[in-house]
Structures are given as C-alpha cells and as structure tokens.
Amino acid sequence: MAAPRKDNVKELILDAAEKLLESRKLSDISLSEIAHTAGISKGTLYYHYKSKNEILFDITDKYLDEQWNDLVRWTEDASKDTSLNRLVKYVLERDVSTVNMRLHFFYDAMLGNEEIRLKLLTRYREFAELIAGKIAERTENADAQYLSWLILLLSDGLFIHKTLRNDALDVDDFIGQTAEYARLLKQHTPLPQKQSDGQ
C-alpha cells in the first residue's frame, strides 16, 4: 500500500484535530491523541506540525478560506437570487451553522493566543470589505461598511446565544426577520449625499 502524500497527511491531521475539537478544548487535547486519531505516528505528526498552535492556525485558515470561497461563489452564481435580503440571510445562516469551530478560535484568542487574535482581526476586516462590496453592488440605500459590520456583529451574537441554548431567542426566525428588514431597506429612497461647506 502506497504511503499517503504529504498533503494527504496534513489533511488527516487537521480532520483528526477537528473531530477531537467537537467535544473538547484544544488545551485538553495532546499531540499524541491527534496522531492516534489520524492513524499516524507521533513522529509523522511532528514532521508536519511542531505544536498544537500550528494545527489551529491551519484549521482557522481552512475554515475561513471555505467561508470566503463559498460566499464569492454564491454571490457570483447568476442562477441564484443573491439580492440584498438573500445576502444577509446567507451570511448569517452560514456563520451560525459553523458555531463549534468559531468558539475554539475565540476561546484561544481570549486566553491570550496573540497570533490567533491577530489572524481573526485581519480576517474580520477582509470579510467586512468583501461583504461591503457585495452590499454596495445591491443597494445605495445604506452605508455598506456599516451594514457589513452590523451583519458580522449579529452573526457573533447569534452564535453565542445558540451556544447558550437561549430558549427566548428563535435564531432562525431572527435571521428571517433581519433579512426582511434588509429587503425593506432596499425599497427606501437613498438619502441625499451630504454636501461640503460652501456648496
């Protein structure tokens, strides 16, 4: 039987780590456990990753790259309704559905993992710019930068309450109502541009 290629081994390691992270914190998982779950030796794991931090970096990149590529692909699909309200609904639903991995990123960042914190902040800015661009293509009735950050902040709040199992909040219904507000927003007449003094 042929040995797995280098890329395949890294994928095995990341998949194993993600599986373990479904029920435990990264700090409670050893590299030996990750290697055992991946079906490889500890030495093979060390060849690819020297620390759990490096594994978390790659999981973070994998997760965020998937979200980025899926959003771009969805908004550029001419066969789909990607109007403003649908865009808002898509982003919120997608963010809330990936709650488990996001908790690990936030947890490590809040515990002082500076590299993860900076990576998350960089990606937040990148996603805010991407979403703002998509909003601007669909309406002139709102500040696209403001609305993009509002969507990202809403998604964070919703995933926290979903994690808390807040019975007072129906997440799906809330997302539907938010999308409806976005639809109504698109129907409003845009505010006139502010003129500079002396004009």
Topology:
Blueprint: H1 6-21, H2 31-38, H3 42-48, H4 52-75, H5 84-97, H6 99-110, H7 114-136, H8 144-163, H9 171-187
Please, could you describe this protein's structure?
Pfam families: TetR_N. Keywords: DNA-binding. GO terms for molecular function: DNA binding. Residues 30-49 bind DNA. With 199 residues, the chain is mainly alpha-helical. It has two domains: 1-50, Homeodomain-like (Arc Repressor Mutant, subunit A), CATH 1.10.10.60; 52-187, Orthogonal Bundle (Tetracycline Repressor, domain 2). Helix content is 71%, strand content 0%. It contains nine helices and no strands. α4 (52-75) packs parallel to α7 and α5 (84-97) runs antiparallel to α9 (171-187). It is elongated and about 60 Å long.
Q: Could you name the ranges where pLDDT drops below 50 across 5 or more consecutive residues?
A: none
CA radius of gyration is 21 Å
List the secondary-structure elements in sequence, H or E. HHHHHHHHH
Name the quaternary structure.
single chain
Average pLDDT taken over every residue: 87
Class of secondary structure makeup = mainly alpha
Shape: elongated
Task: Specify the number of helices.
Answer: 9
Which percent bin holds the helix content? over 70%
CATH architecture of the largest domain: Orthogonal Bundle
Number of domains: 2
Could you tell me how far the N terminus lies from the C terminus, measured between alpha carbons in angstroms?
77 Å
* Largest β-sheet summary: none
Number of strands: 0
The CATH topology of the largest domain: Tetracycline Repressor, domain 2
Q: Strand fraction band?
A: under 5%
Keywords: DNA-binding
Pfam family, one: TetR_N
InterPro entries: Homeodomain-like_sf, HTH-type_Tx_Regulator, HTH_TetR
Protein name: TetR/AcrR family transcriptional regulator
